[in-house]
Amino acid sequence: MIPLLLLIASIILLRIAPWVAGGEVLKAAAGYAPVMALAVCSGSFLSRRLAWVVALVAAVVPHFVINLSHGYGFGAAHLGVLVAASGVAVALGAAVKAKATVVPVVGATLFSTVLFYLLSNTVSFFSGVGYAPTLGGWWQCLTTGLPEFAPQTWVFGVRQLAGDVGFTVMFWALCRRSVPQTVAASGMSPARSI
Q: What pTM was estimated for this model as a whole?
């Protein structure tokens, strides 16, 4: 249970802290929050119900805190993308199960992170805020973003990938260590034991 609490705390802190700190901290740390990593590993190592709760709490609570602290609306479209991508990540984690080596778990995380990146930026493009309604405008949204925001969108995406992959490996190692050997030897699914 300790690794689970550490995972949830790290997600919430890494997701919220840069936005609350602002300025240079935001620019340096933006994007490293391992939301998809936690969702995939939750799906792989936790019971189905607990995986959904953990993934959704880690995605939704920081979203609301960030929006409230900056005076934004709750962003229903972006929140929907975040919830949908987290759901896909939990399902992929459940598909690879706790018995999987780190490679399929990292693969599921990579897929989930890229999906979230594409969906969230496409929603931003269609929101009509600053992008030309052309294929070039969509490409700008995916690569450089709007000039008044830093870092550029592609940098944010690379940070998402790095944070999610790095944390997936760490979460996978922590969760593998926390699964009792007697449960694994009994043939019972470790995912159902936590």
A: 0.76
